[in-house]
Structures are given as C-alpha cells and as structure tokens.
Amino acid sequence: MKNGYIQIEIKGKMAICHVFPPEDGGKPLNFMEMDSYLKNHGFENYDRNAFREKMATGQREALSLGLCDGLEFSEDMYVKISLDRMKVTCRFMPPSMGGNLMTTRDILAELEGKGVIYGVNQDAIMGFLADRKYCTDYVFANGDAPVLGKDAKIEYFFNTNPDLRPKYNEDGSVDYRELNTINNVEEGALLARLIPAEPGEPGKDVRGNVVHTRHVNNTHLKYGKNVRISEDKKELYATTNGHVKLADEQVYVSDVYTVPNDVDNSTGNIEFTGNVHIRGNVRGGFSVIARGDVVVEGVVEDALIQAGGQVIIKRGVHGMQKGIIDAEGNVISQFIENATIFSGGYIESGSIIYSEVNASKDVIVNDKKGFIQGGIIRAGGKVESHTMGSSMGAKTRIEVGMAPEKKEQYTMLQRDIAAKNQKINKLTPIVATYQKYIEEGRQLDEKNSAYLDKILDELDQAKQLLQNSREIFNMLHQELLNSQHAKVVVRRDVYPGVTIVISDVSATVREKRSHCQFTKSNGNIRVSTL
C-alpha cells in the first residue's frame, strides 16, 4: 500500500510535476500538503486548477510548473513532535528526479536539530530507508510514559451504606421484614483490608526531559471498640459478636442487645450503648434508649424510643397521642398513628394518621394504599404520598423547605431578635441621658458611675448578641428562600382542607386534585400535573 505523492523533474530551465496516484488502497494526495511543498521549492505561479484536475484522475499524470532555476534538490523530511513531546512523527517527500536521497546520518541529524535525542527508533528509520514511502507517517521516536501510581484504598467486608429502605413488592406493597440494615458479624470476622499505595515511576520525553508521575495518596486503617488490627497493619478483625459500623472512617463493632419478647414489666426500660433488637412489642409507658439503631419486630405503643442511629418498626406505631420516636438517623415504620416522630434523616411509612412527623430530609408514604390523614408533617426536602387529607376534611398540614429543627431555630431567633431590640431601645435613652449630663461638665458620683458602666456593658453585650443572632437568622432566612428542591408530591388524591407550606409561602387546597405536585415559584405555590 502506497499513498499518492508528487515528484519534480528538472529539464533545463523547465520544471515538470509528476503525479503518482495511490496504490493498493493508499491515501490520495492532499492538495494543501502538495501546494505547501511546491511553494517551499519556489513554485508559486503554477496552474492550481489544472493540478487539481490531474490529482482527480487517479492516474499517473504530468503537469508543467513553468520556468525554474534548473537546480536539483534533495529529499525532504518533515518532523512533527506531539504536544506532550512523547511522540515524533516524520513524513517524507521525494527529491527532484536527479536529487539526493537522505541517509541515516541525515535523518538523525535532522531529528537532533529538532531537539529529539531520546527514544529514537533505529529500526523504523531503517525500514523507511529500505522501502521509501512518501506522504506517509513514520514514527521515529517515542518517549517513555510515566507509570501512574495507585492510591492506597480500604476494602470493607460489610455494608458501609446505612441508608437502606424497605423492599417493595411487585404489587406495590412494602415488605418491612426485609430490611437487613444491621451488619451482624461474628468474633474473628475480617472487617476491612488495606491495599497499600503503589508509587509510580517517572518517564522521559523525546527531548530527554523527565516526566514526573502524579503523587499517590496514602491512608491507614482506623478502628475502635471490639476491633483488632493485624501485625502488618493491613487487616481489621472483630473481637466480639455484634454489629459492625463505619463512622468517620473508623470501624467499630457494637454489641447488639436483643430482647427476645416484649419490652414490658419483665424487662423494664432499656438503655444501651449499642444497637437494640426487640423481637416483640414495646408496650405503653416504657422507653428504649440506644446510641445505635433500634429495630422492633412488633408494634410500638405509647412509648419512648430514642436512637443515635435508625429506628425500624416492622409492624407500626400506635402512639395513642403519647408515643415519641426520636432518631438521629432514618425512621421506617409500617404505619404511624397518633404519634410524634423526629428524624435526622428521612421517614418512610405505609400510612401516617393524626401524627406530628418531623424529618430533616424527606417524608415518604409509598405503600400502594398509603395516605397522610390529619396532623402536621414537616420535612426539609419533600413529602410524598398517594393520598393527603380525607373526604371528611381531616385537618392536615404539610410543611417543606427547611429541616424542622432549623425552622424552630428560625422562629426562636425572630423572638430573640425582637427581645434584644427591645432591650437596646430601653437602654439607649438611659445612656444618652448620662452622656448629656457629662457633656454639660458635671461629674458622676461613684454610685452613678458604676451604674453607667453596668448599663454600657449590658448595651454592648446586647448589640453583640443581636449581631450574632441576625447573622444566623439571615443565613437561615436565605436558606428558607432558596429551598428550590422542596415539594409536595401527590400520587393519587389531595382533598380540600390540606394546607401546603413551602418555605415561607402557604396555600390551602380548596378543591380535590389528583396526580399533582406543589412547588414554589416566584413567591407563590404552583400546582402542576405529574
């Protein structure tokens, strides 16, 4: 296979261009490349249209270029160095028919003149000299690319994502028994393995410059209670049966306290530093307090459950207007009835009835017959349910756009700012009276001087506290105004009497709507179809 090329024949003072078409599937001539080559050898005023026509025939042709100086010229070599200086590509054009061919020494001298001193491929050069092909790329030099190192990493042999949700069946129902949110491990189990960093190797470009490799990041295994590390510091093992968890990049194992039956008079209240697994119910009047997760296989009555992690209630909550669930993580329950719920994550349930529900993230009621009826639902993100309110006009309030604890802080700051302004307005005239007294040249006795100092201290402190409160309030206010992703989603029906609050805007549903969502737009609540 040969690409097309041209060659110049010098006859006395005349120049003739011979056009050689490609052979065996080679590439055709490139007019721009050929025109540049002709210009480099002084042929400016030739008939370019005629040259194009000769190129197009696909046959060997000849074209007069006109008068010339009559001197023969040698073979041409064009050198192209890649931007990263890791590759040198050369192309050749033939000499005039009586001109000189380049030798190995000529090619090496040309490369050296371009600064190419490393990675020169002698075999490639000899290959060209043995079988010269013009208008063809030859790679005559390659640099050594740097070998990239690998960062150290840690391989965990347990689920490090605690944000699990219930399993949804094909018919749309929710299976609260298949949660698998606790990582149970046995003593001696391998928990994590450190894969050390692999340093890279520098390379070198065709000009002999060192090409540095990237820096690799190292790490080490971090571990806490009930975990041991191997002698080579590369593996972690459990030293007891329990629940393994990853927190702040630290692996630890918590003993799981299991209640085989109900939490009632036979057990008393439960307080545990790890996770609690209750195989029965939590009866009214009792409390379960755990630093980790709480899983209840049965029902929670009018009881208190506090957890530093998730709370999972597989058969639901009958709060009887006294039950409280307070979790720093997510709360998952088959249903919630007449209870107060606080969650630092999301809340997911099959139905919510006349309850006060507060979630930093989302509140999702995703059962195929799921509904929210009565009560107050607050979420930092979205609230989603198949049905909201009821045909009987159950008073239902849905608030989204800011985490409940932040909204409470926002309200308290409003009151605090008003109180501090009132105090400043009360103290300022007193200070002004004393200042006027002093400006008149009078002197304060010891008692009044001490009183003025006290008032000035109180005023400065009130102003400083007011400034601090205003900074936090303004930040929360901006967050409240910018809550773009807050929304209320209704998969089936929303009934009249449901109040929707998004950030600082509220609206009450006046007529039944179906398959819609409520969002905030331009300071108003907008209703759109799903």
Give me a quick take on this structure.
This protein has 530 residues and is α/β, with parallel strands linked by helices.
Written overview of the protein:
The chain is built from 6 helices and 38 strands. It folds into 5 domains: 5-67, no CATH class; 76-142, no CATH class; 153-252, no CATH class; 273-404 and 485-529, no CATH class; 406-481. It has a 21-stranded mixed beta sheet that branches. Helix 5 runs antiparallel to helix 6. A hairpin with a 2-residue loop joins strand 16 and strand 17. The chain is elongated and about 115 Å long. With 530 residues, it is of the alpha/beta class.
Give the number of DSSP strands.
38
Note the total helix count.
6
Q: What's the domain count? A: 5
Helix proportion: 10-25%
N- and C-termini, Cα separation: 62 Å
**Overall radius of gyration:** 41 Å
Characterize the largest beta sheet: strand count, sense, and whether it forms a barrel. 21 strands, mixed
Percent strand:
35-45%
What ranges have pLDDT less than 50 throughout 5 or more consecutive residues?
none
Output mean pLDDT: 89
Specify the overall morphology: elongated
Content-based structural category: alpha/beta
